[in-house]
Amino acid sequence: MSEQLPAPLQVVCRVAGVSRSAACERRRRRGTSESPRRRPGPVGAMSDPELLAQIRDVSPPAPFVGEGHRKVWARLARRGVCTSRKRVLRLTREAGLLADGEGQKTRQAPPRRHDHRAAKPCAGEGALSLAAGQGTPQGLTGTGRPQAG
């Protein structure tokens, strides 16, 4: 393999900034008449250009630009064209048939109930009044239970 290279494969790959596995794969594919890679997954019942023609046929001409992909997908399903919603989204996006989405509401977080800071001790009502020199509030033991008798 390295008999055609002017230097060892590791050095050539380091200089080129390519991993050795990628370089070996490229050299392996160069020798074969392998077709270029296609999108992963099963092939649908229709090719992308055919489905795009169906999408254009389903989408009525409107005064505004585009329409939502879910509505287009539902119209296709009513006509008996079985395809995935995400494929319809990809094709309509690539063809520029989607609405711009300016009128869509953006989801906002609900208002905060508090500011996430520790509460400051109050000097008035509800504050524990400690007697001078004692480590517990009046009438309570160290365990927080009332004193006996």
Helices and strands: which structural class?
mainly alpha
Count of helical stretches: 5
Q: Rg from C-alpha positions?
A: 35 Å
- Biggest beta sheet summary: none
> Overall 3D geometry?
flat
Average pLDDT for all residues? 75
Query: N-to-C terminal Cα separation, in Å?
Result: 95 Å
The count of strands amounts to 0
Spans of at least 5 consecutive residues whose pLDDT stays below 50 are none
Oligomer: single chain
Your description of this structure?
The model has no long low-confidence stretch (mean pLDDT 75). The chain starts with 8 loop residues before the first helix and ends in a 54-residue tail after the last helix. It has 149 residues and is an all-alpha fold. It has 5 helices and no strands. Among the domains are: 30 residues, no CATH class; 48 residues, no CATH class.
Sum this structure up briefly.
With 149 residues, the chain is mostly helical. Helix content is 35%, strand content 0%.
Q: What is the topological layout?
A:
Layout: H1 9-16, H2 20-31, H3 48-58, H4 69-78, H5 85-95
Which properties best describe this structure?
single chain, 149 residues, mainly alpha, 5 helices
